[in-house]
């Protein structure tokens, strides 16, 4: 019996989303259950859980360009699944955010809501267009632009979030900032290599 090609992607997405939900609920219970502190703990851990999925998906093409083959090629082949897993995980995170705002009155400046809401719109659009049919319908250039803008938008939000917490929570924010810097360095190095290749030929 032939296994459908979507099965690995669906498995990765579902398993990671269930793990995010379990982590969020587990931390919520550990920090007081259905209380402000408990929901905020769930919010924090689900964001942290989603972050490595985003960095892996965002860095996959750069790693494969710089060092072709091996696990980098495998990562690139699974980039779509990893990106969809990030989207699913981050919408679990959104559920905790909505609970914190609607039930416990957590508020943020309007600018934060606009930028964060825009990021979720981009994540949803990227998830909905993470398939060959959408790429053909949009055309490769428009599809690539959408995913480039969305990826940079999310990266900037993660960077701002972790950099602002460096002094408060260095053990958590420090490694995250280092990963972001490394991802940016990989992206720059891959772009430079791509520009140099035609000249060398």
Number of DSSP E strands: 0
Give the overall form. globular
Order of helices and strands: HHHHHHHH
Q: State the low-pLDDT regions, or none.
A: none
Mean pLDDT: 92
Largest sheet: none
Please, how many helices? 8
Q: Which strand-content bin applies to the residues? A: under 5%
The percentage helix is over 70%
Helical/strand content category: mainly alpha
Give the tags:
single chain; about 200 residues; mainly alpha
If you had to describe this structure to a student in words, what would you say it looks like?
Helix content is about 85%, strand content about 0%. About 25% of the residues are buried. The model has no long low-confidence stretch (mean pLDDT about 90). The N and C termini lie far apart (about 45 Å). The protein is mainly α and about 200 residues long.
Topology at a glance:
Layout: H1 7-30, H2 36-66, H3 70-77, H4 79-104, H5 110-128, H6 132-138, H7 140-163, H8 170-200
Summarize the structure.
This protein has 201 residues and is mainly alpha-helical. Helices cover 85% and strands 0% of the residues.
